[in-house]
Write a structure and sequence with these properties.
Strand content of chain B: 5-15%
Shape of chain A: globular
CATH superfamily of one domain in chain A: Succinate dehydrogenase/fumarate reductase flavoprotein, catalytic domain
Oligomer: heterodimer
CATH topology of the largest domain in chain B: Fumarate Reductase Iron-sulfur Protein, Chain B, domain 2
CATH class of the largest domain in chain B: Mainly Alpha
Largest sheet of chain A: 5 strands, parallel
Pathway (chain B): Carbohydrate metabolism; tricarboxylic acid cycle; fumarate from succinate (bacterial route): step 1/1
Strand content of chain A: 15-25%
Number of domains of chain B: 2
Radius of gyration of chain A: 23 Å
Distance between the termini of chain B: 65 Å
Protein name (chain B): Succinate dehydrogenase iron-sulfur subunit
Shape of chain B: elongated
Largest sheet of chain B: 5 strands, mixed
Strand order of the largest sheet of chain A: 7-3-2-11-18
GO molecular function, one term (chain B): 2 iron, 2 sulfur cluster binding
Number of strands of chain B: 7
Pfam families (chain B): Fer2_3, Fer4_17
Number of helices of chain A: 14
Structural class of chain B: alpha+beta
Order of helices and strands of chain B: EEHEEHEEEHHHHHHHH
Enzyme class (chain B): oxidoreductase
């Protein structure tokens, strides 16, 4: 067993964990707002700007830029989309600051977004929006945003710790503040404790405990698992957004679960069951063009009737729109499917609902501060802005807005902070021991347990939920979690040892899976992404509550907190009288 | 690979220095299977110590690029049928970069050169200014658009024989980004970019062999961009002489 003396120690002033939209913006803003000479360090589980999900954004960036659209309208869409559960102050700041952030992205960071013929920014409407609001760069918006942010950060004097996996938030001995973060330097396998006056955590959530999931492979809920152990409150943990059309190609391929874009259905793509019949009109009058949650439930219901394709999903069919037309309109998707061996333009491609985004996260205020002094959280790790459902286009707006806010807040707060804090030796040793645990057990395969967890969550905490299923899931996850503690990893070479990290990934996923199941049981109604077959109604909107999960010792607890309608109450609007319900032209 | 073939013969680079060792594995074959799936199977079921890198799984991040039967490729988007009709695979870390371990290359030199090429936006406006109207059909904008979908995967860098022969050469990706910026009317760093790309490791090292364009998985053409830089740096040089 390693003792803390075998831990490399490193000090900085501002530490940022994660290099998606939130992490990179936090680095830029911290540099602009902190006093000269402040040391800034950015640490990431993979390579800077390459891991995480901002890069994978296809659709675009929601921002009200006039033409009739307003911040108020964006806000109302966000609140209604979130089914009245969002933290309204956070949702407001998201919509308001998106206007500044998009100008910053274009003018300072150097992103170039698609233009109208007159040279102005092109904006389109996603489902659930009442204005053409989504700024984009083709259907590869995330690549443009992250590549440009990455090159800005690379060219600045920011210290980089790549392939550094955060494994524990280490508070002071009296637990009053955060002292630093324990990492594993993945390339060497050594522990590294980084002390900092302020830490911004943006590891990016990612519901990869489901059999089908879209996030990048590095995302395994490490941030939320660390926050839970540090005693922080997690809200909206039952809220897992499923995208209806993930590619389905078998259990053995990492292609399975990856997103086939929303636009395919919007353009007239049809969903067919195993007998190659359309079925979505059995579930909703809008058919395939219904919202993500409705289509996901329709597909899942059809799958439960065993009306499935070879691999247990359904088909998406585009050929009736003319294969050449499909190739011209969706070149990226057609090429990706072709590389994977499927003909999207002329054939049938198997699809399945896939876990896409996690609305839940750490309870923060609108300045990204948490209950633990020195810790700030932004992006998908933070809960509240989206409530029970995230609108397409609000994800990257959220991460870039609040990453920047975190950088500004840390730059201001650090002026009031004195010396670096001393880490609690007991917590530090406990986190080291926790990570070393598998090295003390007989080596065995990790992947079968990951698979078992993904089956359990998909079947019992998935698209459609019941008390029976959620309760069963708690037992199944506990059994998998126990089994994991008996699976070992050989300790002879820990350098770039992915199997050790697979074990740690699964540890985080098991912990957060229990929190999701518990919150799912607590919410006895159906809102947004959370659907209870035994409580199908949305419940009393005026009495809306959000769930809060905490961990004390090893035990999870859940409670309901009332939503504070600080800006607008259910049934009301902040739009002026006489404003049209939607500005989007009927299709 | 025939339908009847049940396993793939896979040889994998091991160790922390290039060419240190090779291990062979028999990997179960499937109808839908990428090179990344093969590498993952080896690590998950045959040798838990195999090191490699991947993230997005869909050709957007460029983390998983490796040499596959001698050719640089995104392993996540390379179907086995395309590269191993005989069921044989040789997988190695990306060429022209240091090896960290097994299949994971150290990409720092690639990104250091990105920065050295001044390949980041030089702002002429701030967040307090309106977004500039730009005609999307304008010729310089169209030129900039040609290279903008680069995901910095370093496939072109690995394919480039000039990089192989001259470790100081900035390489196709960084130079293409510099060319994109030079054609971006909003960029205020024209002279610093021209200075950066005309130095000893700059664009004039390119012999127009075209491997970058041949292997780019996004069908971009860095060689064309580099030719543009050569013209612009030459013009700038002569203009400088006239003004001297």
């Amino acid at each position: 067993m390693a003792s803390p003396t075998e831990i490399d120690r490193h000090d900085t002033d501002i530490l940022i964990i994660g290099t998606g939209g939130a992490g990179l913006f936090a680095a830029l803003h911290a540099q602009q707002s902190a006093p000269p000479g402040t040391r800034i360090t950015i640490a990431v589980k993979g390579l800077i700007g390459k891991c995480g999900c901002t890069r994978m954004v296809q659709g675009g960036y929601n921002v009200a830029l006039g033409g009739g659209d307003t911040v108020e309208r964006h806000f109302m869409d966000t609140i209604r989309g979130g089914k009245w559960l969002p933290n309204q102050d956070m949702a407001w700041k998201l919509c308001e600051q998106a206007v500044v952030r998009i100008r910053e992205l274009e003018n300072e960071v150097g992103c170039f977004f698609d233009r109208n013929p007159d040279g102005s920014l092109h904006q389109k409407a996603f489902a659930g929006q009442t204005a053409d609001r989504t700024v984009h760069k083709g259907d590869l918006t995330g690549i443009e945003i992250i590549s440009r942010l990455m090159e800005q950060v690379l060219s600045r004097p920011v210290e980089k710790l790549q392939e550094h996996r955060a494994i524990g938030l280490i508070p002071t001995a009296d637990k009053s503040a955060l002292a630093g973060v324990l990492f594993i330097d993945m390339r060497t396998g050594r522990f590294r404790l980084v002390r900092a006056k302020t830490v911004m955590m943006a590891t990016g959530g990612g519901p990869t405990m489901y059999k089908y999931n879209t996030p990048s492979g590095d995302k395994t809920m490490d941030g939320l698992a660390m926050a839970l152990r540090a005693g922080l409150e997690l809200r909206d943990m039952e809220m897992v957004q499923f995208h209806p059309t993930g590619l389905l190609a078998g259990d053995h391929t990492r292609m399975t679960g990856t997103v086939l874009e929303e636009g395919l259905r919007g353009a007239g793509g049809q969903l067919l069951n195993g007998a190659q019949n359309r079925f979505m009109f059995d579930y909703d009058p809008k058919g395939e063009r219904a919202t993500r949650d409705v289509v996901s439930r329709g597909i899942y219901s059809e799958m439960r009737k065993n009306n499935t394709s070879e691999n247990g999903g359904v088909f998406i069919s585009m050929a009736h729109l003319g294969p050449d037309n499909v190739r011209a309109k969706f070149p990226g998707m057609v090429k990706r499917c072709a590389d994977s061996g499927f003909d999207l333009a002329a054939g049938l491609v198997e699809v399945v609902p896939t876990a896409h985004y996690f609305m839940g996260g750490v309870v923060v205020d609108a300045d990204t501060r948490t209950a633990l002094e020195g810790l700030y959280v932004a992006g998908e790790d933070a809960g509240g802005a989206h409530g029970s459902n995230r609108l397409g286009g609000n994800g990257v707006a959220n991460s870039t807005v609040y990453g920047g806010v975190a950088g500004d807040t840390m730059g201001a707060d650090i002026r009031k902070m004195g010396a670096l804090r001393d880490p609690c030796p007991t917590t530090l040793q406990a986190e080291v021991d926790r990570a070393l645990h598998p090295l003390t057990r007989k080596p065995d395969l990790v992947q079968p347990l990951r698979h078992a967890l993904q089956e359990a969550m998909w079947e019992d905490v998935g698209v459609l939920r019941t008390e029976t299923g959620l309760t069963r899931a708690q037992t199944r996850v506990a059994d998998i979690s126990d089994a994991l503690m008996e699976v070992g990893v050989a300790s002879d070479n820990l350098a770039f040892n992915l199997t050790w990290h697979d074990w740690l990934n699964l540890r985080s996923l098991c912990d957060i899976s229990q929190a999701i199941a518990l919150a799912g049981l607590e919410r006895e109604n159906s809102r947004g992404a959370h659907y209870r077959e035994d409580f199908p109604d949305e419940g009393d909107l005026d009495a809306s509550y959000f769930t809060v999960v905490t961990q004390t010792g090893g035990d999870l607890a859940v409670r309901r907190d009332p939503v504070d309608f600080s800006i607008v109450r259910p049934g009301e609007t902040i739009l002026p009288d006489g404003e049209p319900e939607t500005l989007v032209a009927a299709q | 690979m025939t339908a009847a073939q049940e396993t793939l013969d896979v040889t994998v680079h091991r160790g922390t220095t290039r060419g240190a060792r090779y291990d062979s594995f028999q990997v179960p074959a499937h109808a839908s299977q990428t090179v990344l799936d093969v590498v993952s199977w080896i690590q998950q079921f045959a040798d838990p110590t195999l090191s490699y890198r991947f993230a997005c799984r869909v050709g957007m991040c460029g983390s998983c690029a490796m040499m596959v039967n001698g050719t640089p490729r995104w392993t996540c988007r390379t179907h086995i049928k395309k590269v191993a009709p005989d069921g044989k695979l040789l997988i190695e870390p990306l060429r022209n970069l240091p090896v960290i371990k097994d299949l994971a290359a150290d990409m720092d030199p690639f990104f250091d050169k990105w920065t050295a090429a001044e390949a980041q936006h030089h702002p002429s406006q701030t967040r307090h200014d309106p977004i500039e109207p730009i005609d999307p059909t304008d010729a310089t904008r169209a030129e900039a658009d040609l290279g903008v979908e680069c995901i910095n995967c370093a496939i072109c860098y690995a394919a480039c024989d000039t990089v192989a022969g001259n470790p100081d050469y900035l390489g196709p990706a960084a130079l293409q980004r510099a060319w994109t910026l030079l054609n971006d009317s909003r960029d205020d760093g024209r002279q610093s970019i021209l200075d950066a790309v005309s130095g000893t490791g700059g664009c004039h090292n390119c012999h127009s062999m075209g491997s970058c364009a041949q292997y780019c998985p996004n069908d971009l053409n860095p060689m064309r961009a580099i030719a543009g830089l050569k013209r612009e740096t030459a013009k700038s040089f002569f203009k400088g002489k006239r003004n001297a």
